[in-house]
Amino acid sequence: MTKTNSPNPDSLLKLQDMTRSYPGLLANDQVNLTLNKGEIHALLGENGAGKSTLVKMIYGVLKPDSGQIFWQGKRIAINSPAAARELGIAMVFQHFSLFDSLTVLENIVLGLEAHEAGNNLEERIIEISEKYGLPLEPSRLVYSLSVGERQRIEIIRCLLQNPGLLIMDEPTSVLTPQEVETLFETLRRLCDEGMSILYISHKLDEIKALCRQATILRHGRVVASVRVQDETTNSLAAKMIGEDLGTVKMTSAHPPGELRFVVNKLDYPATDQLSVSLRQVSLEVRGGEILGIAGVAGNGQDELLGVLNGEVQTRPSSAIRIDNKDCAHQGPDQRRNLGLASIPSERLGHGAVPGLTLNENTLLTAHERMGLVRMGLIDFQKSEEFGCKIIRDFDVRCHGVEAEAGSLSGGNLQKFIVGREINQKPSVLVVSQPTWGVDAGAAQAIRVALRELADSGTAIVVISQDLDELIEISDRLAAICSGVLSRALPTAEVTLEQIGLMMSGVETLDNEASE
Amino acid sequence: MIPYLEKRAEHSRTMVYISPFIALALTLLGGIMLFSLLGKSPAQAMYAFFVAPLTSLYGWAELGVKASPLVLIGVALSIGFRAGVWNIGAEGQLTLGAICGSCVALWLYQVDSVFVLPLMMVGGVLGGMFWASIPAFLKTRFNANEILTSLMLTYVALLLLSLLVHGPLRDPDGFNFPESRIFHDAASLPIMVNGTRLHLGAVFALIAVGGIWLLLSKSLIGFQIKVIGQAPAAGRHAGFSVNRTIWFTLLLGGGMAGLAGMFEVSGPIGQLLPIISPGYGFTAIIVAFVGRLHPVGSLFAGLLIALSYLGGENAQITLNLPIAVTGVFQGMLLFFLLACDVLIRYRIRFKPVSRFRHG
Amino acid sequence: MVDILIPAIITIITASTPLVYAALGEMITEKSGVLNLGVEGMMLMGAVIGFIAVTQTSSVMLGILAAMLAGAGMSLIFAMLVLGLQATQVATGLALTIFGIGLSALVGQGLVGVAYEGIPKLPIPLLSDIPFIGPILFKHDILVYGSFVITVLVSWFLRKTRAGLILRAVGDSHDAAHAIGYPVIKIRCLAILFGGAMAGIAGGYLSLSYSPLWIENMSAGRGWIALALVVFATWRPGRVFFGAYLFGGITILQLHAQAMGAGVPSQVMSMLPYLATIMVLVLISRDQKKIKMNSPACIGQPFHPSS
Known about the structure:
The structure holds three protein chains of three kinds. Chain B is mainly alpha-helical. Chain B has 14 helices and two strands.
């Protein structure tokens, strides 16, 4: 051990040369990070930069290939989440570790060691939830809770252990702007009480508003470690992305054309407790126009995509019209023949079949429109040509059309799926989360492609949780909350605060009251 | 060194072909151990099991006789399994096919016409389809698990067969034995090789292999089945109907099993008996899996499993080995195959024990 | 009337007991998120091994223990394939049944026709003298009492203990359980072994008490009925018990009807338990919401800790 290895005595956590690889990917390459007591430290980087890998190593979920961890100056090994909790490290995952069929209380018990749970757990939960403004009912079953409430379970579960370090992985990706503000207040309060927080995000505004220090990752390496107040959003962005992607506002090139896609007062009852009922959903999209639908996850986006693309059918049959033809009673293939294409948010298993080749995956949605099937038999030569064209046009990196869809990276597979739909020249396109979990380059390419498709006369609906994305590409904006779709406003005129209100359902109620 | 599994980025296409052979080798190894445990010379037993049955033309023909129903049912079941439709009641569907085929034969007992056999085949297919349509209906209409319903119906079918041969279909001149009349020539399957029992069913089994291969690899229906089996949501998105797939695969499996049942009574058996199958419908499940749910694979797997039946019978006669050895062999083969399949999706790697300690 | 009723009720209890064991075991396995279709095979192995142990050692306890171990041993094969080697649960369970039928027949070769008087009844002093209730409830063998106890224990375990909560959690979301740090594979392995041991006892009860003798394939589909019972009971121990008795009742009623010569062919009567299973499955499965809310969410899904 050389002298450089001895840590700063003030630091709570110090990571040195942390390295972890996956097959074919170096997720973390000699990452260093120092976190002081009572500090909110940002771990900043794009999707796929290696943030999650790093924190999973801190929390003992993943083992590093090499590297050292110092906790309060002492070198330690963290072999399991239990060991991490023992040290005083708590973590709120981006994807919650919750059990839908159990109660809030049972979920919290499961997150604690047997001796920590104790007898008066219910009282302690209520106490903490009141102290930090995190209201929760211990006897509720988790499946009935909103995403924001679920996050509170995770936070309370962490706070019950009086941790020295709280790790939060992209906590705001599921919250409305108002909920984000409440969360920040809670975090600042915890920080004032001496807790350290490692805050993982790729949202620069949040980091400016909340954090003191920031460590920036790109392609698994630390590119900078900075004091946030010395930086601007732009300088942070430049460090994070590494190159200027030229994110300019994309507006439509032409005035909107004919009405191509109309949904009129569509109702869809929930099929079970885990899904959301859609109520009186109406929207209109013209050719050449992109309608953005914002909203927090779990407010009916999946159901909306399903009723729009025909995976579930609804009544009355006049509720959905494509180019003036009724289609609410029709299935996905019939609607596709009318010109409606769709891209679901889940790539693997919904938009594409991971175990089938790209060639076969073209057949999923294109077999009829592109004439890939003759007399019930598949023309594989034709589908291969179509697949190759998608790969060329959309720069899909893979080893040819015979590659299995599941072997592509998220961004490349998404480009393939988007390309498959766009190359069929649909008259209406409904797309959900077009750039979810996709690297920045691919995301930008997809947005440009969507805009170009609109400019060629297609009516497009984009359902997304990424507000920045919606503001960037859509002409009009609406939001969905608890299965109710708000009025759509021109993107150029709408304020962030207004969108926030729409996303939390307030705006919609006002409209209904005034009508 | 600790072995662990590492997920492959793509399925290994080599392993798809190699793993059944590894499984077969392991099964043979297991067989050697089994025979040693039973106090028999492994070499002798192996010879009796796997070589002796194939030393004559008659033996090869018998292999075809046993393999025909296995292949017919196995290829049909593999289609269902690919779609995630678990029809494990093929034995019952086979029984119903045999019953319906026999009913036609006995009903046309006085008729000597070339149309008798085709009518029996239609009867057999419809009988099997009818029996398979019950789980299909219950699954699509009430969401009832087809594994359990199709299996329960197998027990019902076997009881129904027993009821019929003890009652309405019993040979009136048969001294009250629970057997039907022996079928006439017009109702018996033509023999393919003189002096053997190899019957027309073998030809149908080969046709089924070809037909299902075409269906699975070239047709849109086959593609839909694959998609729905691997990713139901993607199937829904594409507009493929899950219910239609359930009906199609169950009716196909039922029809083929029914046909196989009718072939059994009209070919090797020649009449309706209380027991008409040594569990072909169940063993066909093994055939389907060992054949990689692929029609050509099922053909080879069917031949292999048929050999285990013949070998079991032969070993019983020559070495006094219990006939149950056959079932153990078949079970072992399936176990080892399922175990070896891990190599298709995963790589076995080794890591040193103290990997995380050295910093 | 009572002279007929008491023996009838007693036979219902004996017919139901193996179903209680097998279904409770399978329920625990399924609660952990694993579907083991090999119940029939494990039961048969329990039956034959238990029978051998009892006839060789004349010790009832060793017989029961052997049956348990046989079932657990079979389930261990399943656990290794499914948890260790990521094999499909449905196919592996089917393989276990096919293998169990073959192996039990092989092992039981020389036992066909061997006689055994059945494990002794243990009347509980005083209580068994109560008229009517005494003979019905307190004059059984240890396995019948055991089935009552195990039902209560399983119910208590699932509802009141931390281990039971963890088991339910693993079945609800293995990813979440893994993320929190629970050893999903180990927990599932234990649940599978418990299911195997219970199926082994169920088989042992058939060959040691119910029949008592060994015949090939003597479980006659009871393993599959047990699987259906778990769905019927919507994964609740009390209802599993009730369902087992419902089926035991139907089985016995049809046997009595056959004996009395009700004018219906015996085969038709024998179909009743199987048809009843189908009926019950249909009735329960119609309500998809209920099934979805009650069934362990992860059931049948493979789990690999790296993903």
